[in-house]
Amino acid sequence: MRTGLKISLVTPAxxxxxxxxxxTAVRWQDILRRLGHEVIVxxxxxxxxxxxxxAVHAWRSAGSIIRFHERYPDRPLIVLLAGxxxxxxxxxxxxxxxxxxxxxxxxxxxxxxxxxxxxxxFHEKLHVIHQSALPLNRTRRxxxxxxxxxxxxxxxxxxxxxxxxxxxxLLPSDSRVRIVHLGKAHDGNWAERARQEMAANLRYDWxxxxxxxxxxxxxxxxxxxxxxxIMEGGANVLSEAVAADVPxxxxxxxxxVGLLGDDYAGFFPVGDTAALAACLxxxxxxxxxxxxxxxxxxxxxDLFKPEREEAAWRDLLHILG
Length: 321
Description:
By secondary structure, this protein is an alpha/beta fold. It has two domains: 6-131 and 305-320, Rossmann fold, CATH 3.40.50; 147-303, 3-Layer(aba) Sandwich (Rossmann fold), CATH 3.40.50.2000. The protein is 41% helix and 16% strand. The protein has a six-stranded parallel sheet with strand order 2-1-3-4-5-6, with helices on both faces. α2 (62-71) packs parallel to α4 (94-103), α3 (83-92) packs across α4 (94-103) and α5 crosses α10.
């Protein structure tokens, strides 16, 4: 694909949002601009004259995908399969979700196991583009007084966000583990649940929504990160943790296995509080366990380098011509 194209990049997340879809769109906008393209980021496609479209989310962006295809059936259309597309909306809204996938010239996914989850007829369209992240600008300095475990993610059902807090309750009374959670509550019910958990659980500290520099500062002081989600399309916070040299404890969903590898030592069964508690106890007391996680994460770090993500986009756009 030639440079100097005008590209519509549609994401359902609004301009002020800090959720994963918006962050993905902004990072891709920067990449595409570096590759020489003009990029318009919006929540919907409104019949602008553009040369190509990239839609974040097959189901939530279905209207924009149809409008662009109807106006420009011969121009490149790329659709990102979000986690909810792959693991939820294919089942709850299969017609709309698969229609978007059919109209797309290319389907982008964020981890290497998505082909197991989508119909065979879409496999030839699938392109894995790992989300990139920058390393910290200094060697981390984990807390010595407490064993800080960070949780980075909004409080909503798909994230199972209080699982680490509940696991910390099961640790011995002399445990120094503390769960520090950054993320916006999806609604008032989640906010109240988090406040109640803090009141009842002195090992849990929910600090609400945070900016990127606050996440990086928490990485600096944390011994490990927990990603307890029940579904993920390929969490950017995981690549951020790996790039920051923070060991990861993750639920064994395909979205995390596809990023960390089948043999990764830090998985626990989805929703298994006792198994997660055992992992937290090992982080606190088993140096070899923590060294193993660190070594395995470092072995995956090349996947998340910014130059690799940029090259993947350059290659994909070249293929679409």
